[in-house]
């Protein structure tokens, strides 16, 4: 197993970089989730926001999420060049220099936090700054390489966007935004552990202490099932709060039944089964997890719209 416990230098020479390479530094797929959950937090808030202010808020939150991605790629370049899933990223592929990624990440971080604060309020700007710090320093630089609980604690970074959106609208951190935070926070471990199950060799080769590497596949499957049960209770219970309602409840019941079935199927997986069978079940669960979060936040958004027209809630 390759020892990459310290951040080694990745030799790259930029010059062939295209716009798409610099955009890839921002992790656009991850940014999509950040933007959507922040947008839901903004619109679910019980305060009307001017469309232009709302657009600016979501834009600056997206830029902050992209800044986090660039700084993550800068620090993790040594890991990325070992893992098959990330070897073609701009830095390990040699299209973008590490120094460029660092400069872009720092510049976009400062820009996004300051302008979000100016456009909305400084609580929102401060939350965005803390989110970037948490993802880059606490998760990427510390937790990811030091503990199998990396994704559990580090998952908080991906759970902050709806809180930031809510704060941008209200200037406060409400119980409702904390529920959206908890929903994302509890969803993150089973989502990433499913990925780790069918990409274990990547993390093993890179020396990243994911649960699959340190405790094995069986323990990881148990953890997925436990977190999924806790997540289902939280998700269904949210239906009976001010951000829930009958539409959300219907979505939550269906999605959580599917998610629990998937987690149970993974838990019951025969350790002697073929890798192809394991890969299929775990990959299906991972794909379902993507739909799971988008559908729940979409239902929260729909309930918010119905409530504003006098049709939502209980």
TrEMBL record:
| Keyword field contains Transmembrane | yes
Provide one Gene Ontology cellular component.
Answer: plasma membrane
- Catalysed transformations (reactions): heme b + (2E,6E)-farnesyl diphosphate + H2O = Fe(II)-heme o + diphosphate
Give TM regions. Answer: 30-46, 52-75, 101-119, 125-143, 150-169, 175-199, 220-241, 247-267, 288-311
Q: Which GO terms describe its biological process?
A: heme O biosynthetic process
Q: Provide the E.C. number(s) assigned to this enzyme.
A: 2.5.1.141
What EC class is this? transferase
List GO molecular-function terms, semicolon-separated. Answer: protoheme IX farnesyltransferase activity
How this chain sits in the membrane, per its record, is: Multi-pass membrane protein
Source domain of life is: Bacteria
Where is it chiefly localized?
A: membrane
Keyword Calcium on this protein? Answer: no
Describe which pathway this protein belongs to, using the record's wording: Porphyrin-containing compound metabolism; heme O biosynthesis; heme O from protoheme: step 1/1
**InterPro entries tied to this protein:** Protohaem_IX_farnesylTrfase, UbiA_prenyltransferase, UbiA_prenylTrfase_CS, UbiA_sf
Alphabetical UniProt keywords: Cell membrane, Heme biosynthesis, Membrane, Transferase, Transmembrane, Transmembrane helix
State where the protein is found.
Cell membrane
Quaternary structure annotation from Swiss-Prot or TrEMBL:
Interacts with CtaA.
Sequence similarity: Belongs to the UbiA prenyltransferase family. Protoheme IX farnesyltransferase subfamily.
Function text: Converts heme B (protoheme IX) to heme O by substitution of the vinyl group on carbon 2 of heme B porphyrin ring with a hydroxyethyl farnesyl side group.
Task: Give the matching HAMAP family.
Answer: CyoE_CtaB
> Per its UniProt record, what NCBIfam families does this chain match?
cyoE_ctaB, PRK04375.1-2
An additional note in the Swiss-Prot or TrEMBL entry is: Carbon 2 of the heme B porphyrin ring is defined according to the Fischer nomenclature.
> Mind telling me what this protein is named?
Protoheme IX farnesyltransferase
Which species is listed as the source? Salipiger pallidus
Q: Which gene encodes it?
A: ctaB
């Amino acid at each position: 197993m390759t020892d990459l416990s310290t951040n080694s230098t990745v030799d790259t020479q930029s010059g062939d970089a295209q716009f798409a390479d610099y955009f890839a530094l921002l992790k656009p797929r991850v940014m999509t989730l950040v933007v959507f959950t922040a947008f839901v937090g903004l619109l679910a808030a019980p305060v009307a926001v001017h469309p232009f202010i709302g657009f600016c808020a979501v834009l600056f939150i997206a830029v902050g999420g992209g800044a986090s991605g660039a700084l993550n790629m800068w620090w993790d370049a040594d890991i990325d060049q070992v893992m098959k899933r990330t070897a073609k990223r701009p830095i390990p592929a040699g299209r973008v220099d590490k120094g460029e990624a660092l400069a872009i990440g720092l510049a976009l971080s400062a820009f996004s936090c300051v302008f979000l604060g100016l456009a909305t309020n400084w609580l929102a700007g401060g939350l965005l700054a803390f989110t970037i710090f948490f993802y880059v320093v606490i998760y990427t630089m510390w937790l990811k390489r030091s503990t199998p609980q990396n994704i559990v604690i580090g998952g908080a970074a991906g759970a902050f966007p709806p809180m930031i959106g809510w704060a941008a609208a209200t200037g406060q951190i409400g119980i409702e935004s904390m529920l959206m935070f908890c929903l994302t926070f509890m969803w993150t471990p089973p989502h990433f552990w499913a990925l780790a199950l069918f990409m274990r060799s990547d993390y093993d080769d890179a020396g990243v202490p994911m649960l699959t590497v340190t405790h094995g596949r069986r323990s990881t499957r148990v953890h997925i099932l436990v977190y999924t049960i806790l997540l289902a209770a939280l998700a269904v219970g949210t239906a009976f709060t001010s951000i829930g309602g009958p539409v959300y409840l219907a979505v939550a019941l269906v999605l959580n039944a599917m998610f629990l079935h998937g987690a149970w199927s993974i838990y019951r997986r025969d350790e002697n089964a073929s890798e192809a069978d394991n890969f299929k079940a775990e990959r299906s669960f991972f794909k379902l997890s993507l739909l799971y979060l988008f559908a729940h936040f979409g239902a929260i958004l729909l309930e918010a719209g119905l409530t504003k027209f006098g049709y939502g809630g209980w």
